[in-house]
């Protein structure tokens, strides 16, 4: 019998990504983000979340994708405090989807480079693949960062 899992989904470029619902504290529209001098390129900056300072990691940069246009404001996926004060910037947030373990596969062969290192695997949905982020690696800026 299949075990069910709930994932929060979001879009980054052409990728549909997901993280376990238990990892997410909240989803917000873009906030003012303050740049951090000398921070790795994947760190967009810091945002003030009701008095708590949260690091914002740009998933486009983290995955090695083209930068977001200035007109396109990101969505902010704030992770639970157990992960530290960190959030992920995505192009758009989707739904919470329920997936079965029988639909889980290794990352697709077409996924290469930095992106492949940051994806745990994929779930087959009716018309797309949902890529499951490997959060430990995504948050470890040294993995797949600047070469």
Q: Could you describe the 3D structure shown?
A:
With 147 residues, this protein is mainly β. The chain has one domain: Beta Barrel (OB fold (Dihydrolipoamide Acetyltransferase, E2P)). 10% of the residues lie in helices and 46% in strands. 29% of the residues are buried. The C terminus is likely disordered.
Strand adjacency order, main sheet: 8-1-2-11-10-9
Structural class: mainly beta
- CATH C-level class is Mainly Beta
Query: How much helix, percentage-wise, in residues?
Result: under 10%
- In terms of per-residue confidence, which ranges show pLDDT below 50 for 5 or more consecutive residues? 143-147
Q: Which architecture name does CATH use? A: Beta Barrel
CATH fold annotation: OB fold (Dihydrolipoamide Acetyltransferase, E2P)
Whole-number total of structural domains: 1
Can you count the beta strands?
11
Cα distance spanning the termini: 43 Å
* Helix and strand element order: EEEEEHEEEEHEEH
Q: Report the principal-axis shape.
A: globular
CATH homologous superfamily placement: CheA-289, Domain 4
| Average pLDDT level | 90
For the largest beta-sheet, the strand count, sense and barrel status come to: 6 strands, mixed
Oligomer: single chain
The Rg value, from CA coordinates, equals: 15 Å
Number of helices: 3
Tell me the β content: over 45%
């Amino acid at each position: 019998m299949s075990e069910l899992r709930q994932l929060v989904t979001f879009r980054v470029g052409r990728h549909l990504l997901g993280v376990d619902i238990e990892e997410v504290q909240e989803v917000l529209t873009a906030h003012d983000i303050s740049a951090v001098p000398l921070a790795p390129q994947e760190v967009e900056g810091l945002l003030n979340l009701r008095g708590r300072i949260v690091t914002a990691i740009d998933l486009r940069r983290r995955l090695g994708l083209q930068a977001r246009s200035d007109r396109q404001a990101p969505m902010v996926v704030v992770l639970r405090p157990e992960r530290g004060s960190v959030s992920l910037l995505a192009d758009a947030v989707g739904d919470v989807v329920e997936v079965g373990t029988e639909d889980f596969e290794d990352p697709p062969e077409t996924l290469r480079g930095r992106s492949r290192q940051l994806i745990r695997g994929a779930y087959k949905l009716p018309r797309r693949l949902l890529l499951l982020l490997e959060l430990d690696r995504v948050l470890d800026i040294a993995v797949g960062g600047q070469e």
